From TrEMBL:
It comes from Nocardioides turkmenicus. Pathway: Amino-acid biosynthesis; L-isoleucine biosynthesis; 2-oxobutanoate from pyruvate: step 1/3. The keyword Transferase applies. Belongs to the alpha-IPM synthase/homocitrate synthase family. One of its GO terms (molecular function) is (R)-citramalate synthase activity. It catalyses: pyruvate + acetyl-CoA + H2O = (3R)-citramalate + CoA + H(+). This is Citramalate synthase.
Length: 536
């Protein structure tokens, strides 16, 4: 049998706390999964809720899958009814999916306590449901729920469940570590035993409660499993399911098993992030292979070796999974980090040792004051430009700014307003603008952008999309130093700038001015000559 990569993001992944997918979300994710080349997409449980039923109705018409087959998930028939008469089995049969994955109990205690039926009736439920769906022309897989725990409690019965499913026509039985409590050697031993004492293809479905879901899946494959289930980004109930990208990347890149169509593993980072956009769950930076930090290097010593050969500090070429190497600039940087970061930004600094040293020293000194450049690439680039070109880019000169916050009344009746006045010079003209906002930074942002837009209309397209304040000398109370990070967008890209000060408004102002300056540098060719920046 050909190896199966089976994705259950739309079913088991959707069981994650906080994840709630609409039918449109599910269709969008299915298209992304197909773009990665998975063999099977489990779309949900038709009949369990209107959304999943609707998903299958639309998927059959709207999804033009190139690589994947659609699988419908659901349980075996209820005790005491015929499979053909069970409405849940009917929903699976009528879902339009070519594949049905049945969940069945394989742990004797679950049969008796959860199903409240006999061990023999559970076997009959499996036999009848598999045969019925096979007779209806569907390909049937069986998820043997709680298999590893069931095997420990009653090996003979757990194996009997598998034999019953195979004999009735199940093409694969996936052994489920439903409670996620297994370790790799335990999984391998059980899979070996199952293969020795049953006849049929073995699959694996692991949860991550011991942090071993990926390792357990690989151990099962090493022991002979030919079908591996998992979820994009490791989504799933509790601590999640095996991260399918990690499993597949390990199989292909480390173990030499081509389990995806040629070339598609290079889509992994794009797909993982695109799915995260749809789920609205922020992607984990430290996720193996596809995380933004998976190939990010901070330590100066790492950068100095990477300058010679990236392989010295990377386990693989990030391009293999569609990711990129990134250099982080911080107080842990050395000259090599600055040189490589410069190269990443398009500046060749290799011939100017003094400049690189100056930048390194400035970064370390500023980080000591509280600045952080690894999170504020745009502020670093402005600093670098200042050293490379001899002056910081400047498109406007600030004459003064002022913020007034006023509160009227007290308690729950209190109403507050904030107004800012900004005076700047740009293109030889003095601009005075006011802005109102729900707080001082919002009001300043409004006023500053209104003033600059008069000289540079492109600024109207800029948006402040994120604002983070952090107090970093805790214990000083209200006179503590603050760091402000501001993310600005021009609609297609975004950049982050940093400001630091004892006064949160001054720190915000610094980050705001840098944010707009950086945006103008991208969109406007020639800066006007710089003059002194004065804050009132
Ligand atoms: C390990 C897993 O993650 S498996 C996937 C689990 N996913 C879900 O549960 C999400 C979708 N589930 C649902 O929407 C609902 O639970 C439904 C529609 C399936 C069932 O809802 P209800 O009919 O209200 O039953 P309820 O959820 O309270 O209990 C589950 C029933 O299924 C039975 N059942 C559980 N597993 C199986 C099985 N493998 N085969 C047959 N019946 C089963 C239980 O015995 C219980 O029966 P009971 O109603 O006679 O007590
Ligand atoms: C079927 C399934 O999701 C499990 O046993 O974990």
């Amino acid at each position: 049998m050909e190896f199966h990569v089976y994705d259950t993001t739309l079913r088991d992944g959707a069981q994650q706390e906080g994840l709630n997918l609409s039918v449109a979300d599910k269709l969008a994710i299915a298209r992304h999964l197909d773009g990665l080349g998975v063999g099977f997409i489990e779309g949900g449980w038709p009949g369990a809720n209107p959304k999943d039923t609707e998903f299958f109705r639309r998927a059959v018409d709207e999804l033009d899958l190139k690589h994947a087959r659609l699988a419908a998930f659901g349980s075996t028939r209820r005790a005491g009814v015929k499979a053909a008469d069970d409405p849940q089995v009917a929903a699976l049969r009528d879902s339009g999916a070519g594949v049905v994955t049945l969940v069945a109990k394989s742990h004797d205690r679950h049969v008796e306590l959860a199903l409240r039926t006999t061990l023999a009736e559970n076997l009959a439920m499996i036999r009848d449901t598999v045969s019925h769906l096979r007779e209806e022309g569907q390909q049937v897989f069986l998820d043997a729920e709680h298999f590893f725990d069931g095997y420990r409690a009653n090996r003979d019965y757990a194996l009997e469940v598998l034999r019953t499913a195979y004999e009735a026509g199940a093409e694969v039985v996936a052994l489920c570590d439903t409670n996620g409590g297994m370790l790799p050697t335990w999984v391998a031993d059980v899979v070996h035993d199952v293969r020795e004492h049953t006849q049929g293809a073995v699959g694996i479905h692991c949860h991550n409660d011991t942090g071993c879901a990926v390792a357990n899946s690989l151990a099962a494959v090493d022991a002979g499993a030919m079908h591996v289930q998992g979820c994009i980004n490791g989504y799933g109930e509790r601590t999640g399911n095996a991260d399918l990208v990690s499993v597949v990347a390990n199989l292909q890149l480390k173990l030499g098993r081509e389990v995806l169509p040629t070339g598609l593993l290079g889509e992994a980072t794009r797909v993982a992030h695109a799915v995260a956009e749809v789920t609205n769950v922020p992607p984990a930076g430290r996720q193996p292979y596809v995380g933004a930090s998976a190939f990010a290097h901070k330590a100066g010593l790492h950068a100095s070796a990477i300058k010679v050969d990236p392989d010295l500090y990377q386990h693989m070429d990030p391009a293999g999974v569609g990711n990129d190497m990134r250099l982080l600039v911080s107080d842990m940087a050395g000259r090599a980090s600055i040189e490589l970061k410069g190269r990443e930004l398009g500046y060749d600094l290799s011939d100017d040792r003094d400049l690189v040293t100056r930048v390194t020293d400035r970064v370390k000194a500023l980080e000591e004051q509280g600045y952080t450049f690894e999170a504020a690439d745009a502020s670093f680039e402005l600093l670098l430009i200042e050293e490379v070109e001899g002056a910081r880019p400047s498109y406007f000169d600030v004459e003064s700014w002022r913020v007034i916050s006023e509160a009227r009344g007290g308690g729950s009746e209190a109403a507050s307003t904030t107004e800012a006045i900004v005076k700047i010079h740009a293109d030889g003209v003095r601009h005075v603008e006011t802005g109102e906002g729900n707080g001082p930074v919002n009001a300043l942002d409004q006023a500053l952008r209104a003033a600059i837009t008069r000289a540079f209309p492109v600024v109207a397209d800029f948006d402040l999309i994120d604002f983070k304040v952090r107090i970093f000398d805790q214990g000083h109370g209200t006179d503590a130093k603050t760091r402000v990070l501001i993310e600005t967008s021009d609609g297609s890209t975004s950049w982050t700038t940093v400001g630091v000060g004892a006064n949160v408004i001054e720190a915000s102002w610094e980050a705001l001015v840098d944010g707009l300056t950086f945006g103008l540098r991208r969109h406007v060719s020639e800066p006007t000559p710089s003059e002194a920046v004065v804050a009132e």
